[in-house]
Specification:
Endonuclease III, domain 1; mainly alpha; 2 domains; 11 helices; Endonuclease Iii, domain 2; 210 residues
Length: 210
């Protein structure tokens, strides 16, 4: 079975398990999802969701965040780890949003990845989930692990993995593919002890590296 055929089956089967996949990060708009996704780097979504209510109470939009003292932001996001860099990047990004984009989150990959602390993964998540734009497939730790195990890529480089995955799925499904793989990676195809014996993909998965 080639990668394209396997990808189609993976999508169909995972969709049967997770019929309505959605991001775990709680957000109400593109700004909130951008902040939450930046904070989620090297941190669990669940922990980020405990931090963001206070964050958005203090800084409800880019204009408010652009005026914040970095030290105050550090104190609020401390629990997410790497808090100094995250706080610095978020305040700097807010200043750019105000100065260049009228205080709004831009709807383009180029503009988003020009923001401090925002790489393609974060930009893809914001574009697909908050702005309805499927530019690419967000490759986080789960997607990276599953794509390699399932023989959809031979690389461990997120940029190359994304390029390998995109031709295998319909553009309209890019955002959904990320959610499905993340959910399945958390529930079944875990990093250290994948549950292959009870996996709905067992018969088509090459189990590379397992």
């Amino acid at each position: 079975m080639d990668a394209a055929a396997r990808a189609t089956l993976i999508h169909t089967r995972l969709k049967s398990v997770y019929p309505d996949p959605k991001p775990a990060l709680v957000h109400r708009n593109a700004y909130e999802l951008l902040v939450a996704t930046v904070l989620a780097a090297q941190c669990t979504d669940a922990r980020v969701n405990t931090v963001t209510p206070e964050f958005f109470r203090r800084w409800p939009d880019p204009a408010a965040l652009s005026r914040a003292a970095v030290a105050e932001v550090e104190a609020v996001v401390h629990a997410t780890g790497f808090f100094r860099q995250k706080a610095k990047n978020l305040v700097a990004a807010a200043n750019i949003l105000v100065a260049r984009h009228g205080g709004a989150v831009p709807a383009s990959m180029a503009a988003l990845t020009a923001l401090p602390g925002v790489a393609r993964k974060t930009a893809n998540i914001v574009l697909s989930n908050a702005l309805g734009i499927n530019e690419g497939i967000a490759v986080d730790t789960h997607v990276r692990r599953l794509a390699f195990r399932m023989g959809l890529t031979t690389s461990e480089n997120p940029v190359i993995i994304e390029k390998d995955l995109m031709p295998l799925f319909a553009r309209n499904d890019y955002g959904e593919i990320n959610h499905l793989l993340v959910l399945f990676g958390r529930d079944v195809c875990k990093a250290r002890s994948p549950r292959c014996h009870s996996c709905i993909l067992d018969d088509i998965c090459p189990k590379i590296g397992v």
